[in-house]
Recover the amino acids of this structure.
């Protein structure tokens, strides 16, 4: 997982559902603040695989066109094996599962 930036910052477009769930963050202004939000996300979602954090210039987000949300799989060769349509509506769990199976099966 690569955390790119907060989708609904409190000082931006905040959602009522996030407020009810206590997911309320201001837009981070440095790497440390962004990493802290990513760590909270990992804990809250129970993520057990590695999570990287994009830099403050949003390099990964721009490279993968990963905004507002996108799911992708990077193969062992470092190449993008799957990239969903922009989301959240473009993220299809069944397509992700199929792509993971293909990727893990290898060439």
């Amino acid at each position: 997982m690569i955390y790119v930036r907060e989708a609904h910052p409190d000082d931006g477009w905040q959602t009522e559902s996030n407020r009810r769930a206590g997911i309320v963050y201001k837009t981070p202004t440095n790497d440390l603040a962004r990493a802290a939000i990513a760590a909270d996300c990992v804990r809250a979602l129970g993520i057990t695989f590695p999570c990287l954090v994009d830099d403050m210039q949003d390099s990964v987000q721009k490279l993968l066109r990963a905004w507002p949300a996108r799911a992708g799989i990077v193969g062992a060769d470092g190449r993008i094996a799957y990239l969903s349509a922009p989301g959240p509506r473009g993220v299809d769990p069944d397509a992700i599962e199929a792509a993971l199976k293909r990727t893990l099966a290898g060439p």
Summary: Residues 68-107 form one domain. The longest helix spans residues 31-45.
